[in-house]
């Protein structure tokens, strides 16, 4: 699992470096030609401070999304095959073998199963309580860091709207200085206002797509955990009736 997080960290470092380089190049005079140059122009026109803040929000949001995607993908297992292997071991009375299978399998379902198997000799009620309690712990781990993603989703348009207000203030300052309300005077401030708003909304939309994807993954895993918990309790009951008469 560590190698996946190392790769993700290196990828995020590269993304951050690219963004910093883009911001530095945007501060230089832009020449016409291509989408990249067009983005640089809009970055400059939107104001380096606000646009850089929005870009940082995007990077941080994607970092948490990537971490969650890796974690949730690693948490997925073939539940049916795993439960079948546990059931076969318990049918033979091989509790230690079942524990070894659960211990050597990654993911929250295997962790819940291991906790239940550890208390198999204490009675079915203890096993059921253990599975329910540890299931809540694993559910919390699945939802970890999602609150940060929602924070960045809210921050991105907020920064854009802040840029809008600042742009409007700039426009009114120019009107006051020049004493004229012609479109040429107002255009500069209005451009800052609109570009920062667009940038913030685009970032929020990108992060929202990832957030909804993560929610669907978490919900799917929670449903699998609930189904597996019922099966584990049934296995424990069956074992108790068969070997503890």
From TrEMBL:
Keywords: Cell membrane, Membrane, Protein transport, Signal, Transmembrane, Transmembrane helix, Transport. Pfam families: MotA_ExbB. GO terms for cellular component: plasma membrane. The chain crosses the membrane at residues 47-66, 148-172, 192-215. The keyword Cell membrane applies. Residues 124-226 form the MotA/TolQ/ExbB proton channel domain. GO terms for biological process: protein import. InterPro entries: ExbB/TolQ_transport (IPR050790), MotA_ExbB_proton_chnl (IPR002898). The keyword Cell membrane applies. It is found in: Cell membrane; Membrane. Residues 1-23 form the signal peptide. It is a multi-pass membrane protein. Belongs to the exbB/tolQ family. PANTHER family: BIOPOLYMER TRANSPORT PROTEIN EXBB (PTHR30625:SF15), PROTEIN TOLQ (PTHR30625). This is MotA/TolQ/ExbB proton channel family protein. It comes from Candidatus Parabacteroides intestinigallinarum.
């Amino acid at each position: 699992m560590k190698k996946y997080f190392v790769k993700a960290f290196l990828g995020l470092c590269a993304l951050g470096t690219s963004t910093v380089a883009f911001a530095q190049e945007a501060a230089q005079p832009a020449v016409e030609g291509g989408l990249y140059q067009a983005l640089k122009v809009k970055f400059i026109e939107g104001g380096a401070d606000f646009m850089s803040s929005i870009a940082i929000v995007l990077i941080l949001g994607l970092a948490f999304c990537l971490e969650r995607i890796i974690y949730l993908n690693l948490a997925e297992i073939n539940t049916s095959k795993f439960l079948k292997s546990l059931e076969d071991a318990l049918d033979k009375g091989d509790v230690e073998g079942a524990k070894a299978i659960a211990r050597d399998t990654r993911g929250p379902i295997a962790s819940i199963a291991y906790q239940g198997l550890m208390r198999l000799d204490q009675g079915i009620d203890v096993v059921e309580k253990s599975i329910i309690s540890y299931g809540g712990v694993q559910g919390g781990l699945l939802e970890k860091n999602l609150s940060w993603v929602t924070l960045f989703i809210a921050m991105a348009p907020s920064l854009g709207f802040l840029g809008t207000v600042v742009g409007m203030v700039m426009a009114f300052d120019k009107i006051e200085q020049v004493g004229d309300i012609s479109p040429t005077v107002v255009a500069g401030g209005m451009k800052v206002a609109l570009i920062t708003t667009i940038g913030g909304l685009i970032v929020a939309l990108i992060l929202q797509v990832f957030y909804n994807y993560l929610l669907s993954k978490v919900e799917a895993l929670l449903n699998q955990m609930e189904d597996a918990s019922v099966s584990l309790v049934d296995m424990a009951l069956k074992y108790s009736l068969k070997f503890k008469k």
